[in-house]
Amino acid sequence: xxxxxxxxxxxxxxxxxxxxxxxxxxxxxxxxxxxxxxxxxxxxxxxxxxxxxxxxxxxxxxxxxxxxxxxxxxxxxxxxxxxxxxxxxxxxxxxxxxxxxxxxxxxxxxxxxxxxxxxxxxxxxxxxxxxxxxxxxxxxxxxxxxxxxxxxxxxxxxxxxxxxxxxxxxxxxxxxxxxxxxxxxxxxxxxxxxxx
Length: 196
Description:
This protein is of the alpha+beta class and about 200 residues long. The chain is about 30% helix and about 25% strand.
């Protein structure tokens, strides 16, 4: 069975659409997903999809989550190999390791229809969008001047590209990739080294 990841937008963020992980897992299992696992609390679900076409399964997942969260939930589905490619592409090679910087991957609902000159630098939000590849955007955020908080690229990316997105810290994406590798190894598929 192929492995997939569902990245849920605006789940368990600043008290918004709070969903317990066991209920989230159950919503996927009841939709027909197999070997459902969650990764941290921000709405990342790894699962296997039985059958040859996952479209119906994805729709059942959306319906279950709408009932669970009492609102429409935007979900960015990705195949396991797509996440593996993101990690193996080493998107932050050449980006200096700064004490006051964080690396992020934004998963877009679709490919951008607009082409913007990169990098995009937003001083006020302390965000720099480095590149876009397919349905992923890669950004660095820094501490906002005069504040004890970091910039978060999601709203900037949604505004600039006009596409719903959900953003994850690079370490979370690596954890998801590691879990996928473990599931692949358990089913006899080829696993691989994960770049950090």
